[in-house]
Structures are given as structure tokens and as C-alpha cells.
Amino acid sequence: QVQLVESGGGLVQPGGSLRLSCAASGSIFSVYAMAWYRQAPGKERELVAGITSGGRTNYPDSVKGRFTISRDNAKNAVYLQMNSLKPEDTAVYYCSASRGSYRHWGQGTLVTVSS
User: Fold this and answer.
1) Which of 64-103 are b and which e, b meaning 16 or more Cβ less than 10 Å from the residue's Cβ?
2) Would the CA dihedral through 10, 43, 86, 36 be positive or negative?
3) Cα(16)–Cα(90) distance, integer angstroms
């Protein structure tokens, strides 16, 4: 239906920045709501940023003011700019696409924030 591939994860120092990318293929990208989720060891997967097909964004308080989600429909891509990273941001980050009741997940990219 839709294929999602994340990239941009890695090791970063506290206070540093990373930009994650998610490339989509196989479907009409512009009709999907897109989101980034993360899952740390022993934790539930949680939403960190969402963007609707119309461009409306939402963030939980834990990342508000530090993370920014954006989309480029012409490139079939969604991005997550992460600034002022904290050790508690360490997790596998997953891109998702949703339309109606359907949700598709990428394979994830690991972000490690450590000195």
C-alpha cells in the first residue's frame, strides 16, 4: 500500500540536533496524515509529532518547542527536526502514515543522545 523508509538517526551529544527523514512510496502521499513516533526500551510507543494532510501540526509537551515536523508532498517526504536533544529522547523513531482507519509504519531509525 505505502512503503516508508526512515533515515538520519545516529549518536548525538546532549544539546545537539538531528534531522530525521522519511521517504514514502507506493501511494498518493498527499492524502495521508503523517507522524513520528518513538519507542524507548521498556516503554510504549508514543507520538512525538503529527501533521495532517492540510499541514496542521501537533506535539506533546515533552518535545514542544524543540521538535518540528514538516512535509514536502512534491518529494513524498516528511521530516523531523530535533533540537536541544536530551538523553530521554533516546529511542527508535518511527515514521507513520495514516488514512482513515489504516496506519502503516516504517522500520525505524535509532537516535541515541549520550555524552
Assistant:
1) eebbbbebebeebbbbbebeebeeebbbbbbbbbbeeeee
2) positive
3) 12
Instruction: Give me the pLDDT at residue 64, please.
Output: 97
pLDDT of residue 27: 78
Question: What does pLDDT average to over the chain?
Answer: 96
Query: Could you give the CA distance from residue 71 to residue 110 in angstroms, rounded to a whole number?
Result: 21
What pLDDT digit, counting tens, does each position of 84-100 carry? 999 999 999 999 999 99
Q: How far apart are CA 65 and CA 58, in angstroms?
A: 11
Q: Say how far apart CA 30 and CA 62 lie, in whole Å.
A: 28
Query: Who's near 33: CB < 8 A, 6+ residues apart?
Result: 50, 51, 52, 53, 97, 98, 99
End-to-end CA distance of the chain: 40
Residue found by looking up cell 507520538 in the block: 47
